[in-house]
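hey so u asked for the seq, here:
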Amino acid sequence: MASNTILFLSPPTVTRHHTPLFTTTTTTTSLRRIPQFSSYSFSTRSSSSRSISATSRAMEALIFDCDGVILESEDLHRQAYNLAFAHFDVRCPPFSEVLDWGTEFYDVLQNQVGGGKPKMRWYFKENGWPTSTLFPTPPESDADRAKLIDVLQDWKTEKYKDILKSGTVEPRPGVLRLMDEARASGKKLAVCSAATKSSVILCLESLIGMERFQSLDCFLAGDDVKEKKPDPSIYITACKMLGVSEKACLVVEDSVIGLQAATKAGMSCVITYTSSTAEQDFTDAIAKYPDLSDVRLKDLEEVLQNAVTA
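ran it, structure tokens below
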């Protein structure tokens, strides 16, 4: 096997991790992680208690990210990318093996580069544009490179949809209950995802049900904004569509990219982290949870009230 080359994304840092698709031997590479915090803990900026009547005035809208929040999806995306790379025989010189994104590498990549096309564009820019069945020699023009990215992303998206349709994927704990509590209490409800619209729609239809999906006050996907997270565009747009102040919005995210997007938009954010994001620095979050199974709407109202009055 050809030796691996370590490349870093700076800032923050990410390591190139290239493993053969059809072998069981994996070469270990060192990953430089972003700052850690104590895993599986809960924190808020303020521990002071508020009455329900006071907190109910603070939150007017509850906004959920999709991937990582509504479902723990990142490894599903990774599998779909690798299926696309295998289908189109994508090989990055000087490596002779089909490109395969390993679990450890993808955990870092997906938390540093938002959106599927930007992920591939960054990878190929850093590691060399690949050969494939689409382009026997590495594409050199911007048009050919864009075509390669578009075809790979479209094919990957279809495979991801097949996984969602398989009936084996369930929503993360507590999400549906919180959505129902927010709707029953008159809060506006939104979903904002950096993923492609078609895949997010399928995810929501499959996991939260058509009735909840159709009752959303706002739904935005990566196709709807020019810049992806951590750019705040998607949350700024959602705030305008909802017709509420950014201070009255609470965002639920799972990664530092989503946290940055929310806070740059002037919104408070709580984190429900996953195994792939648990080591990230969520200092700017007003609360963090391993999942939402024990979190009620009144809890979120309280932490938001504490944050906006701090």
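Confidence is low (pLDDT under 50) at residues 1-56. Strands lie at 61-64, 188-192, 218-220, 249-253, 268-272, 287-289.
lmk if thats what u needed
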